[in-house]
Amino acid sequence: MKRAVFSNPWLPILILSPQLAIIAVFFYWPAGFAIQSSFFLQDPFGFGSTFVGVSNYTDLFASSEYLRVAWFTIIYTVLVTFFSLAIALLLAVKADNVLRGAKTYRTLLMWVYAIAPPVAGLMGVMLFDQSTGPITELFGAFGWDFRLGVNYWDTATAMIIVAVWKQVPVNFIFFLSGLQSIPRSVREAALIDNRSASGRFWDVIFPLLAPTAFFLLIINITYALFDTFGVIDTLVKGEPGNNPMTLVYKVFIDGFRGNDLGGSSAQSVVLMVLVLILTIVQFRMMERRIHYT
Amino acid sequence: MADITDTTPAIIAAPASKPTRRIKWGLVGDHAILILGSLFMVVPVFLVFMTASHTPVTVHTEGMQWWLGDQLAENFHAAMFEKGGFTDTVDGMRMLMNSMILGIGFAVGKIIISMFAAYAIVYFRLKFATLAFWIIFTTLLLPLEVRILPSYEVIQGMGLTNTYTGLIVPLIASATGTFFFRQFFRSVPEELVEASRIDGAGPVKFFIDILIPLSRTMIAAIFIIMFVFGWNQYLWPTLITTEEGFFTLVRGIRQIVQTYTDSSIPEHGQAMALAIIAMLPPVLIVIFFQNWFVKGLTESDK
To answer: For B284-295, what is the mean pLDDT?
Structure first.
């Protein structure tokens, strides 16, 4: 921390208060409310609520539908994270290699960052359209009868492709900036030691990128879990039916369609715990990365 | 680096082997991969743009279009100025305005509030500094999506649905901006504070005359990131704005998708035009202010 500081008794409190007030009202209150209502069963006709202990939670984990959604979320998160990281890393390594056109490539590969997930989802609706979508036709040429919104795994495939498309740019930006911060001297030294380009990459460059990769891993898991809401909602056209959905989407569906405040809150709390674990892992690793750099 | 041969030592060979202009197949491969990657990113949006220039019937029977049709101006005009395409009472202009209000309001609000908070945390001797720090940074843990229903209940209880306040302020309730500025303020040399104290500058003067000018690039970068983030919000506007007069462009996308399921031949051209309008402002900002944006984004990792 800084040593030289001002000592004014009221000014810091004054300028901190807007942030604290907003957080108190729009963060801690709702979060507390979620925890509280997860222990209550709300009357469907709005006549108060009864304390039911942990039964919202036990119901949740006994529900085969919830477990199915949880499984799908895991598969979805793993695939989205893996492909968006792998594609971005490949592109970043190549973009770092070339001199000619490097800036143009960077622009072309990153601008999709600014497109909103539901807009990407709408594009997906057109591209994967059952009868006329160009990608559907492409898959058809390989003998894959692709049916968005009808076949569970076809819809899941479209979700994953759109989600990856949307996330590659962010990862690309971080990987490229990570690669560019590796000192020349290190690369030259590696050139002497190891003649194979792929060997150099995995033995020298990749370990140096590991902190960035780890940071991105967490970012991508969070993205797949929460920020792909818009992609999913548009691809299933707001009507999940028998389509795949993620845990966050289920929180929304149960809460706003099913009017199940208790169950939805219990799901929120489960997700909160999940994010908490992720963050703790992240902080642990961030402390450790000091040894790398 | 494929041209380093066995016989020459690597260090000398690397710069000296320039004259022989052989085709470097490794480099060709690199470019091929990069071009493929760029196409992967660009082609879908290209298709959307081209499709926006055709009549609904063409799109409905033939799917997305690869070439420019003759309906471009008509579709964009309809998407921008005609009411009742996908929504009953608002046109694209109104949604564009709402998106601007959300994007700019969110970015400016967030920057002001988080700069103040970060200033208090970094530059003042506070009794409860650690506590304030933890209260603020716990919010980094829980994205709005996780606590969406209770947040909605709270905002609704306050009567803030269908207001710009209800739309913008709850989104500001996270510490990303504060975290950014805290990191940045901590990297500002301490000598500056000492020097300005010797010159008799108080905390207010130091903030306005020294810290804000120093943070200009940082503010610009954060503005871009936050503007894009605010503009692209979907779930929260979907819940909070039920009156069409408050719809943003991204919120309007949901309307499009729902008409898709209802009508026999949806207005594809208009829908694609609206999608282009919805992506244009954030995309342009990101492309034009690329360097600031990249800097701001990657600094957050430090």
So the answer is: 89
CATH 2.40.50.140 fits A72-242, yes or no: no
A233 CB neighbours in chain B (<8 A) are 234-235, 254
Query: What are the boundaries of each domain within chain A?
Result: 72-242
- Judge: A101–B256 Cβ closer than 8 Å, yes or no: no
Which residue ranges form the domains of chain B, and what is each CATH number?
10-81 (no CATH), 92-299 (1.10.3720.10)
Tell me the one-letter amino acid at A274. L
Q: Which residues of B touch A107 (CB under 8 A)?
A: 287, 290
pLDDT band at B16 (very low <50, low <70, confident <90, very high): very low
Tell me which of B148, B194, B259, B276 to substitute to probe the interface with A (most A C-beta atoms closer than 10 Å). B148
Q: Identity (one letter) of the amino acid at A237?
A: K
Among the partner residues B193, B260, B279, nearest to A4 by beta-carbon distance: B193
Chain B residues within an 8 Å CB radius of A169: 41
- Report, as an integer, the average pLDDT of B119-143: 81
* Interface touch B234/A233, C-beta < 8 Å: yes
Residue with tokens 């940074």: B137
Q: Lowest-pLDDT range, A236-245, B67-76, B101-110, B175-184?
A: A236-245
Coil, helix or strand for B248? coil
Q: Is the pLDDT assigned to residue A113 strictly greater than 70?
A: yes
ipTM > 0.85, yes or no: yes
User: How buried is B173 (Cβ within 10 angstroms: 0-12 exposed, 13-18 middle, 19+ buried)?
Assistant: buried
Q: Can you tell me the distance from the alpha carbon of A31 to that of B165, in angstroms, rounded to the nearest whole number? A: 20
In the structure, what pLDDT confidence band is assigned to residue A163 with cuts at 50, 70 and 90?
very high
CA distance A40 to chain B (A): 13
Q: What type of residue sits at position B72?
A: L
The amino acid present at A51, given as its one-letter code, is F
